[in-house]
Amino acid sequence: MSEEILELIKVWLKDELTYAARLRKLADSLKHPVLKALFSAIAKDSEKHNLILTGMKEYLENNRPFITEEDIDAIKKSIKEHIEEESHSIKELTRLKEQVKDPAILLLVEAMLEDEMRHHALLVQIEKIIAQKEKITDQELWESLWLHSPYHGAPGG
After folding, report:
1. Residue 79: exposure state from Cβ atoms within 10 A (0-12, 13-18, ≥19)
2. Which pLDDT value is given to residue 83?
């Protein structure tokens, strides 16, 4: 099963970069600021998907270095800060969403709000997993992360 997944990932890696380049080209050709922003953001999502797929590929190829205590401490500190930042952004975007009347601006605000909410949920889950790290094995950690990850890498994520 892992070999099948690995082969699929290798195909997706190329596809995502192709999609990103195509969308970037489209965005660069547009003058309309909202459409340009949206297509640029979608292109960045394809680049992000490429990064995620690269992580999956390396993990499946058994590139699983040990996470040091120093790494854990740095991650904990950074996650705590980012959770607070995401919470602030969610509050501000929610407030802004209630005030915006222009449908083009509302579309951008809603897209940002959805991203921030997804990021916040993922960071909270990672923080919980790290807090439990002594209680669970590496395999359990990644299975838990997958189980609670929004969208599991599917569209919308």
Report:
1. middle
2. 95
Distances (CA, A) of 19 to 13, 40, 153: 10, 11, 16
Give the number of other CB atoms < 10 A from CB of residue 20. 19
| Residue 104 structure tokens | 């083009």
Report the C-alpha gap between 79 and 85 in whole angstroms.
10
pLDDT for position 134? 46
Query: Does the pLDDT value for residue 136 go beyond 80?
Result: no
In a shared domain, residues 153 and 81? yes
In terms of Cβ atoms closer than 10 Å to its own Cβ (0-12, 13-18, 19+), residue 16 is buried
Q: Which pTM was predicted?
A: 0.73
Domain of 79, in residue numbers: 68-157
